[in-house]
Design a protein that fits this description.
11 helices, single chain, alpha/beta
Length: about 475
């Protein structure tokens, strides 16, 4: 064989050997993904979590009768908003950074905010727009125009209709549900309130749930009491905006069904629960659900809303914040300004993760693509995981220099289920001596998002200690932040 040809053949063989070695190295370092543990979220719930905040609009006959719980006897002639503008509502939400809204289409008084074909107790018998108006239509159109997802509260309880609790009422409600789900575009969430609805049996909800899944398969169901089997999200046991600590997304379905005796379980969830049904935290920006002028001086302050955000979104839940339009059909400028102030704090705080670019090391890395640096890369698509042999870990974040912060964020990979059940965070100014952050000591749940605020600390290193778990660690975000001053 000529020397030149032999050299070419040798180079080719060496090249193939190099490729093979590289493939072997890649195979050796590649690691399989962690296996999910326990109940995990469906696609609707994952999208629901990413909304983080939802607006509630309580508006209807109660607004004009100046009550919170109408008995169904008020005349439709009372309903007459003078300047209804749902585009104003959605502009409030845009300035507040809220991308989803739920309208009360029918509250327990039975009055319907759309010209339903199935009762005369509706806007079609009011003087508003000479009976030609449709609040649900204007709401749905405004949401579509502004890129906001629309949801509907259709109260199962009805104090006006004499058929309530009978099979005939099941037919009536199913017909109205079908009207709303067929005629108003995509409906993102349906809200089945349990208040007063004890006469609505599981068999009624079997039928109504089938209607929802047939007509709007991507619709999230807020379920309570006898609708528990269909719940994508649950009530969290109070109307004060306070999720529990811990707050697990998992719960036993019977705890949702028997809510009167399981308030603690609704508030905290159940770490060993058999169903994945996270908490939706409903609270009004005012003392009441419906508008009352005398409450203009009692609108929650920006500071109070900031606390609510940490006690709901920051506790593995979604915040459902009520904005009650007034008799004109407009959201008060006071409410709007407070909501915009909340958004100012959210954007100002979380725009910069002070741990970005830090050197991150851990005791029990899984290897492969599940590297510690993923915790601070600002991406949900990558995450850090431990070896399957370890449910505990110590993760050290070297900031490179001293930084001052007063907010902490952790986010678990929820598609893999609740995994970590115990954790604490410490900080060090000199890289040697460690001090605990008291508010972040002895914590349990993480889930979609866990936020903690505290007095400012200055550190060059931060340490996450995972002390217990049901399975290996799988966390995609560790963040530290500095709050701006209140607006």
């Amino acid at each position: 064989m000529p020397v030149k040809q032999a050299l070419i053949q040798l180079k080719t063989q060496l090249g193939l050997i190099a490729v093979a070695c590289a493939l072997m190295a890649t195979t050796a370092t590649a690691q399989p993904a962690p296996v999910p543990v326990g109940p995990v979220p469906n696609a609707r719930q994952i999208e629901w979590y990413h909304r983080e905040m939802i607006a509630f609009f309580h508006f209807g006959m109660n607004t004009f009768a100046e009550v919170n719980e109408g008995d169904g006897s008020a005349s439709p002639q009372l309903f007459n908003p003078t300047a209804l503008n749902c585009n104003q509502w959605t502009s409030v939400l845009k300035s507040a950074g809220i991308s989803t809204a739920i309208l009360v289409a029918k509250h327990a008084d039975g009055f319907c905010n759309w010209p339903t074909a199935h009762t005369n107790y509706s806007v079609k018998n009011s003087p508003w727009k000479n009976g030609k108006g449709d609040v649900v239509r204007e709401f749905a159109d405004a949401c579509k125009d502004s890129g906001i997802k629309a949801g509907i509260y259709l109260g199962p309880h009805d104090r006006h209709d004499s058929r309530y609790g009978t099979p005939d009422y099941s037919d009536y409600y199913a017909s109205q549900l079908s009207e709303l789900l067929r005629n108003y575009g995509p409906i993102w969430e349906i809200w089945w309130d349990g208040a007063g609805a004890d006469q609505i049996t599981s068999s009624f909800y079997d039928r109504w749930a089938d209607t929802v899944r047939t007509l709007q398969p991507n619709c999230v169901v807020f379920g309570t009491k006898n609708s528990y089997r269909y719940a994508d999200c649950r009530w969290m046991g109070n109307e004060s905006g306070l999720s529990g600590d811990p707050c697990w997304s998992t719960i036993n379905p019977g705890s949702i069904r028997d809510e009167e005796t399981h308030i603690a379980q609704l508030n905290h969830g159940e770490v060993a629960g058999t169903a994945y049904v996270p908490a939706e935290v409903d609270v009004s920006i005012r003392p009441s659900w419906f508008y009352h002028r005398e409450e203009d001086a009692q609108v929650k302050s920006v500071a109070a809303l900031w606390d609510l955000y940490f006690n709901s979104v920051g506790r593995n839940s979604v915040l459902l914040l009520n904005f009650p339009p007034d008799k004109r059909g407009l959201v008060s400028t006071i409410d709007s300004a407070r909501a915009a102030g909340l958004q100012y704090l959210i954007k100002g705080t979380f725009k910069t993760n002070l741990a970005a670019g830090a050197v991150v090391k851990s005791l029990h890395p899984r290897g492969g693509t599940y590297k510690p640096a993923n915790l601070v890369d600002n991406s949900e698509q990558t995450y850090y995981a431990t070896s399957d042999n370890y449910v505990t870990d110590t993760i050290t974040v070297d900031l490179g220099k001293k930084k001052t912060f007063d907010v902490l964020m952790l986010q678990e990979v929820i598609e893999l289920g609740h995994r970590t059940t115990g954790w604490s965070v410490d900080y060090s100014a000199d890289g040697k001596n460690w001090m605990p952050i008291p508010e972040a000591t002895g914590k349990e749940s993480i889930g979609y998002k866990w936020l903690i605020k505290f007095k400012p600390v200055t550190a060059s290193r931060v340490r996450l200690r995972v002390t217990s778990g049901k399975a290996g660690v799988a966390i995609h975000t560790f963040g530290i932040y500095k709050q701006p001053s209140l607006p």
